[in-house]
Amino acid sequence: MAIPERQLQTWSNQGAVQSSATTHRSVENCIKKVNWNDDVSYVTYLQGSYPNYTNIYGNSDVDLVVEFRSLFSKNLSALTQEQKRQFDSDYDDAKYSLASFKQAVIEQLKDCYGDNVEVGNKAIVVKGDGSSRLDCDVVVCNPYRKYNSYSSLNKSDYIEGIIFNTEHDVPQKTIINYPKVHLKNGSIKNRQENTNGNFKPSVRVLKNIKASMVDKGYITKELAPSYFLECLIYNSENTNFRFNTYQEIAVSIINQFSTDLKNGAMTNYLVQNEQRKLFGSEDQQWNIEDATTFVNQLIKFWNEY
Domain ranges in the chain? Predict the structure, then answer.
């Protein structure tokens, strides 16, 4: 047996998006009420499945980035000593700290939403109102620049990410991510010349399959987080997405996963921003054993459907 094409077509559809936009506007308007100094600069934007168009029906929480742009952190390890000296001469120390900006954001969110605000380890959780505003994880961060080279004539040769520290870990941990690169790479892979526009719909198909596997007891929800699943699919060859049916696409993707597990190629998979390996022992990496269990159960689920 196999999952019927009609079901896969239904699962390929994007979930609701209006509620995520409403949530973004609500939190953004709340933060704007602070009487910020003129030299305080920040932007807010969604990250995760909603801006990537990979959200499915049943997705509820929203990930919102509040990026404090009055300062930036940097990685200069790829630069020569002369380039580092030039960088140091071009930039002064920042006037503000991310910690003080985050505290101001927390206080303002509590003014707006009261007891519905909880400061988590990585994000400020703003609970939804049960109707138009969804639960929202607010990540307060500042820009992170991973420099490839540097000169006074070319100051923008870097990969841009975000950086923040955990709140409750002792000692605190530093989290670095690249949501804009993730978004860009997903859009490139989805292009007609690469995957016939089938990458993002296929991600939604696999996410819905995972949800059904959880509902039917094949796996636990925690085994395959949505971010890792999307990154896993990102590593599927473009040719797998060029078929005319989702059945053919899904079988090709699953077959590649099965083969790559057996020959060890899966250990070299990258996350979608391509800045680290998907599998490893760090907090932002997936456990290869969990991925193996997921793929094996995925094959079982497909065959037993």
Answer: 18-177, 182-304
Q: How far apart are CA 250 and CA 266, in angstroms?
A: 17
Q: The CATH number of 18-177 is which of 3.90.75, 3.30.460, 1.20.120, 1.10.10?
A: 3.30.460
Average pLDDT across the chain, whole number:
96
Judged against a pLDDT cut of 80, whether residue 59 lies above it is answered with no
Stretch 39-49: mean pLDDT, rounded? 95
Q: Residue 130: pLDDT band by 50, 70, 90 thresholds?
A: confident
In the chain, count H helices and then E strands: 11, 8
Q: What is the DSSP string of 225-290?
A: -HHHHHHHHHTS-GGGG-SSSHHHHHHHHHHHHHHHHHHSGGGG-B-TTSSSBSBSSSTTSB-HHH
Which amino acid is located at 162 in the chain?
Answer: I
